[in-house]
Design brief:
This protein is of the alpha+beta class and 318 residues long. It has two domains: 20-163, no CATH class; 182-316, no CATH class. It has helices spanning 25-28, 31-38, 45-52, 64-67, 103-106, 147-160, 182-188, 192-195, 209-216, 247-251, 294-316, and strands at 43-44, 71-76, 88-97, 113-117, 120-128, 132-140, 198-200, 221-227, 234-240, 255-258, 264-270, 275-281, 286-290.
Length: 318
Amino acid sequence: MPTATSTPDAEPQLTAPVIAFGGDCGVMMTTGQWDDVLGQGSRTVEDMYVEWGFGPSPALDFSPVSTLGGLTCHRFAPPGGVPSAAGVEQLEISVIPLSALPPELAASYDDMTCEGGSDGRICRKSASNGEWWIMAQSAGIPDAVPEELLDTALRAVEQNLVRSASAHAAVRRETWWRLDSCEGLMREISLEELVGDYVVGYWEGEESDETRFFASAGVERHCPIVAENGESFIGGITLFPGAGWAWEARTRGAEILEAGDGIEAVIVRAPEIPQTWVYATDGTNVVQISGGPVELQGEMLLRLMPALEDLASSADGE
């Protein structure tokens, strides 16, 4: 498997996108506006970590929203919030330049949609103003359909868009990975040799609307994997096409993994869980491997990068 070593900082490989609101959630919506939507005393994610007594996952964030030039912000409702938020536990709002999305995706949530999820019932609604696409997403067990809450949040963000300079996505290049089939990729790397019999799918639950959305936008593709005995591997491979622009900032200080010519890789460990993640980049794209021991992740990486390089080459030849 690849071995840990020390290497110089990576040189930036891709011009970064310009992020909406300068990447500042306090500009997207003020604390007062969040309180108007959710109730006085709405709480940030950082506030909740203090309440829960633990910090965020050490997994690295190669947000597909950021690659599209967008920004996602998140707040938790206080106990006994406003009536329209009754039963809603949290609210997430994303803003993305409309030019970064195919028209069919931009219309995905014109009408509110709701689905079951790990956080109760998830409801989404979007709006656009010709330059920006905004989506509000609530989670919890609402007392009533939370459309009024989502509409209030969408209006607040739309009013604040005058504070945001123009944003744009990372420039899409021919070297961005495009994956038609998770199953085909697993066959290409002969995954069965490493984990035995397996299925491409979730241990529990199913693919979320959000996962399908970003796959369609071409900025994230998640391939969940479960070894059929449920013991040798439960995890997955996630591709972040075009996310190489964020590599240097996201991996600064991480444990370096030597992974071959032209490839940079790191290991992120959470020993208290215990869990590890392996990340690698070819300078343009990023891949994450989760689940299983780090030795297995390293072997998967050695097979993955040539296969993914072939993906970019075949797309280039189309």
